[in-house]
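Amino acids appear as letters; backbone shape is given numerically. Here is one record.
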Amino acid sequence: MNKVYRSIYSKSLLAWIAVSELTKGHAKSSAHGASIATLAIVLLAGARGAQAACPADTGGIFQVSTGETCAAATTSYSAAISSNSILRAGGAGSTVNLTASGVTITNTSSGNGWGVTTDAGGTINAAGNLTVATNGFNGRGIYMTGGNINVAGNLIANHLVRSQGAGVQVAGGVLDVQGTTTITTAAADGLRNSDSAHFGSNVVINASNYTQGVLNTGTSSFGSNLTITTTNMNAGINMISGTLSVARDLSITANNASVYTGMGVTQTSGALSVSGNVSISTATSNGYGINIAGGSFEAQGGGNSISTQGAGADGIHATGGVVALGTTAAGVPLNTTAVLLESGNVTATGGNGVYILTTSGDLLVRVGAAVTVNGGNTNGIYATNNGAGTTTINSAGTITGGSGAGISTTENAGTAVAINLNNGANVSATSGLAIKDTNGNATVTMDSGSKLSGQVLLGNGNDNMIVKGTADISGATLLDGGNSTDGTVTDILGTAGAATNKLTFQGATQGVAGSMLKNWQTVTLDGSNVTFTGDATLVTGAGSNSDGSLQGLVLKNASTLTSPMALAVTGDVAIDASSTLSHALGGSITGNLSNAGLIYWQNLGQTLTVNGNYTGVAGSKLSLETYLGGDSSTTDKLHVTGNTSGSTAITVRPVAGSPGAQTVNGINIVQVDGTSAAGSFTLAAPVQAGAYQYVLKQGSAVDANDWYLNSTYNCALNNSCPVTPDTPIYRPGVANYVAGQTANAEQGFHQLSTLHQRIGEQKSVNADGRQTWLRAYHTTQNNDGETQFGYKQRITGFQIGQEILARGLGDGGTERAALSIDYANSYARFTDRMRTLANLSTDTGHMDAQSVALGGYYTRMDKDGGYVDLVGQVSSLRNVFQDNYGGRATQTGWRAALSGEVGRPVAQIGDWKIEPQAQLIYQYTNYQGFSDSISSISGYSADTFRSRVGVRIFDNVKTAAKKEIVYYGVANIVHDLNKPSAVTVGTTSVSERFDQTYGELGFGAQGWVAKSTYLYADARYQKSFGGNMHGSQFHLGLKIEF
């Protein structure tokens, strides 16, 4: 019947009827109820009328034999009988129907008497509640060897006073209770089921002083809650085989057991399933919450709780099978012992939170985010794998150990162990030992959001630990990958064939003490930013691991290792092209250093010592800070006790306020005790301070292998300097600022020009006609200084003027006065030809100079053509400099200029007249101080005097239209009467001398082009007598008389 049908009691028929298993007892009137009634009438039609009263239905003992059916209306039966029952349905077809709403059956025998019994084929139906009590040794309230017992109401089964026996035992047959069930025993088991027991409502079992609350080898189903309380018992449930299912919650309380183990659940095989929550509490030594050796235990609710109090009492003790809380046991691979915790808490005050063991196969522990596992006195999780399988522990919850570890694993040598701390995981122990492994090849992975406090000891084997993202190791005190589980033991690292232990920070940002990372052959930063806190004492391996990977400290994939304190790293160090080692106080690396990335000195005056060899991979960089001055300047330094090779670019960061100075040997920034290969180091960027540029030079009078910053051309080494030895190396801006002064002066001279360049021939114009003129000019000039600076300049400008006075004089002469405005732009490129001695470009940059001038002139000319020309101008000045490294600066100033020029025709050869000329020009220029990105440039003033003497030969030619055309040629000697002023760059005064005297040849013409309109032009070529300057200029003008 239990396969397709079950029995329920029908109050309308006053009889038990067979219905579908899905039908509930005590159904109200409905169509479904009508169908039940119809079925019952068909099944009982003949039998009901034939029922007789049960024998001895007077409260005494009675039995119904094979084929007999009777009805009993008595409510209470009591007797003392041993080895038998008060009520028994003893054969095939025998049926007892208890029709009373409540029946109590009591066997008062002190022997092994029973209350109610059915044998194979027998049936007892209770229409209402059934209460059964026994007192005897090995007694049972209900004892079934076969048949069926159906209780429509509630069941109370008590076995009190004497030991052994059970409240209910189903050795065979089917027990079906629709109401609540209460089983109470004083010295016996609560429920023993070897066949089939079904309970429709809540079941409460109180058992004491024997073995178990429930012993199951059959099929037990509980339609609601199952509550078990035991005292001095082995277990609340002993699941030997079969199935046991609870539709709602399972609660087991195992009180103090002075003799027995007092476990919550012990399971050998079978399937125990709880649809709701499980709550287990034990209080005795070795009283495990769940003790499973096989089968599956699952509770799918979200509020599970396992709590143990006794010494050695593990919360979950698994030596086989699967425990699943908050999830199902489905999906676990074959040959795997597993504990899957997805909800609730496991707390073991005196034992392990979870103990899991296998002698073959794999181990799997999974702790969900909403789970807390607490091994109050030993380990949070203790996993032992004595086989060859893998051990896997995945946690997103909280795991806390006591005197042991948060997570402890032990296994055979060489087997794989994976401990994965996922987001939300938190592992710690009151002992300070978070994770411990003994012999396996363990891999501990901490994902972002996980946390670990205390020590990690990974013992023997090839071990790995991976710290990812935002994993929190701020509470970690030791991460030890070594071969001992004693954190005070230090491995001999770098030994060929030794274990390969690797610690990796992967995409992480962490702060750790170097000494906290112990016994790792390789420590790798993979896309991570790690800062040493507390100390920077790190010991790693050197050379290669047995798997061919590098030992030592490895930085890769844009990682940065920052040390606020002095480094004390033992082992090789490898830095890839995207990574950085940044240190504040220098320190030491005892091992070989291979650098493809950046080593950064944070503070001035620190030395990083490499007690080994240094190899710079192409593209590698050092970034040092230096106070740029003389040889004794304070600087950061790389000290290599071995050899250097490869190629490394050094960035020198000048300390703010570095004055710059000439060096003798130079500033030692790389010290090499061994051999330094040529080209091992170069400068990544120009090094400039004050007026000086420093170059990197290998070797000095002190040591041939060291590397120095040098601001002086070492002329004594190759006799290459054209000037006094030890000439300073000036930075490119210096050449620009110094030579720019002379270039500016040439611009001013061209704005003034000469009379005929400015306004053409005056003799041929109307004496009383006022002129308006426009002049454009263009000049090119190459000018090399006597020492080292030079420039190439082109000047373009235009001038417009208007005469305000034009009149004839009584002696036949004329006088004229005018006002003018002039705009000039010059572009100059500068050079420092000494820089080739330091393998530097001679090109130092350029200047864009703009000037706007307001001026006027007064010219008096006599009737013979002699003249006096006076010119005055005031102009603004703006120079924009850019050196060849891209540095820009702007200089402003103003200029006042005066020119006096005289000339007179003194002779004539044929039609050509000879006119000697003389001119004196004075310019005063005031330059404002300014700063570029390197230093300040002081303001200063410059006085420039220029004299010119020469001769003009000209001819006036009348055209057919009687208009005059003037041709002329000029020859001049020009001499600058003083030298350029010195320019102070930083604190250094620098000057340059240029050729002061040059010759000039030129020609010009003026011709009539329209009424009162003249076009004039002038072209000249200059070359200094010293040969360092040459240039040309061209003027073109147009003037109109009014």
In short: The first helix runs from residue 31 to 50. Residues 647 and 680 are 4 Å apart (CA to CA).
